[in-house]
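Work Package 4 report. The design task specified in the project plan requires that, given a folded chain encoded as structure tokens, an amino acid be chosen for each position. We show below one input record used in the internal validation round.
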């Protein structure tokens, strides 16, 4: 049997299955993104003309999650089908082991690895940057800093927060406001009945009405409580706000040269999808062997559980990096190592009886 023909057959089946899974998962995720984007438009924090632009930009980030998962499921389902249809048995009988399947599919895994590396390191950050800039400009034009109802949001700085109970789109104002604003020399805590945004001499302000303002220095008794009918607060310029992009919107080269812990952790997270492709590829090959005595989709269930466990460990590892509880050099490599060693061990265990059988046949032939 021609080795190249068999290898191409394996790759073709894996590609077809992976693309089908990717299409189904992508349509499902796009539906969720479409709903959330429409909700933002309904709240008045995003103009309708940005619907498809924002949807396209957010879809790029979704691909970083879906492509590794789709490739993993595609390889796992395809190879499992070979075992159920006895094709894998024929392959083993002519000398093909699980390692042979791994080598035959390795070029395909390398291609997906390179694509994911480019997508996560270059395309996704640029899409996040464009999305942030467009959303910031839109929010500045149509609403009060893009505030959402019923949740705490950053305000003025990373230490400042604001909470609004209701966004009144018709009157272009927010109602029942709580704000905590950090300054270099004090902290202001403000409550107000309602407020709106206005512009004067090219500078934007927030006018708050019927509330209280508490100013003071933490750790001291120097606090002043004031009741006001109106209190105007100057907003930071939009250009400065866009310039101070978060770590998700910065280029990978900026993160590489950064000394900030969160930005270094973000770089590890960007490398994660491409490395996940390779680890999940080995894991899929190792989990693919099945028999008629086992449940039909048992290996698929195990694979999905392994994927969920791996993603949870990566998320925990990312959080530990940001909290500086794990050395940055340690990164997320320990997660990949655990699953890679497990996958290679399963492949070696699977090939053991096959190799022994081949050795016996070779001895008998001699």
């Amino acid at each position: 049997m021609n080795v190249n023909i068999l290898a191409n057959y394996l790759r073709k089946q894996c590609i077809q299955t992976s693309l089908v899974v990717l299409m189904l998962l992508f349509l499902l995720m796009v539906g969720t993104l479409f709903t959330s984007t429409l909700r933002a438009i309904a709240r008045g924090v995003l103009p309708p003309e940005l619907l498809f632009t924002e949807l396209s930009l957010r879809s790029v980030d979704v691909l970083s999650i879906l492509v590794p998962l789709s490739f993993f499921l595609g390889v796992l389902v395809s190879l499992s089908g070979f075992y159920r249809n006895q094709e894998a048995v024929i392959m083993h009988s002519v000398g093909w082991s699980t390692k042979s399947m791994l080598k035959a599919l390795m070029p395909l895994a390398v291609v997906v690895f390179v694509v994911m590396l480019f997508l996560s390191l270059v395309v996704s950050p640029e899409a996040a940057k464009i999305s942030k800039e467009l959303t910031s400009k839109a929010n500045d034009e149509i609403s009060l800093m893009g505030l959402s109802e019923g949740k705490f949001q950053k305000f003025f700085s990373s230490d400042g927060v604001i909470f609004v109970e209701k966004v009144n789109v018709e009157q272009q104002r927010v109602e029942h406001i709580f704000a905590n604003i950090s300054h270099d020399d004090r902290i202001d805590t403000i409550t107000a009945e309602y407020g709106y945004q206005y512009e004067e001499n090219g500078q934007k302000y927030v006018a708050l009405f019927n509330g209280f303002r508490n100013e003071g220095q933490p750790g001291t008794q120097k606090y002043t409580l004031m009741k006001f009918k109106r209190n105007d607060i100057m907003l930071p310029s939009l250009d400065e706000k866009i310039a101070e992009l978060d770590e998700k919107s910065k280029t990978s080269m900026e993160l590489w040269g950064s000394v900030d812990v969160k930005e270094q952790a973000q770089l590890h997270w960007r490398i994660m999808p491409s490395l996940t492709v390779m680890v999940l590829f080995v894991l899929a090959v190792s989990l693919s062997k099945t028999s008629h005595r086992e449940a039909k989709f048992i290996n698929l269930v195990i694979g999905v559980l392994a994927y969920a466990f791996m993603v949870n460990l990566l998320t925990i590892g990312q959080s530990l990096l940001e909290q500086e509880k794990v050395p940055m050099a340690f990164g997320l490599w320990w997660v990949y190592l655990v699953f890679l060693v497990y996958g290679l061990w399963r492949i070696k265990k699977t090939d053991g009886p096959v190799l022994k059988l081949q050795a016996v046949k070779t001895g008998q032939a001699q």
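The longest strand covers residues 187-200. Validation will be extended to a larger panel in the next phase.
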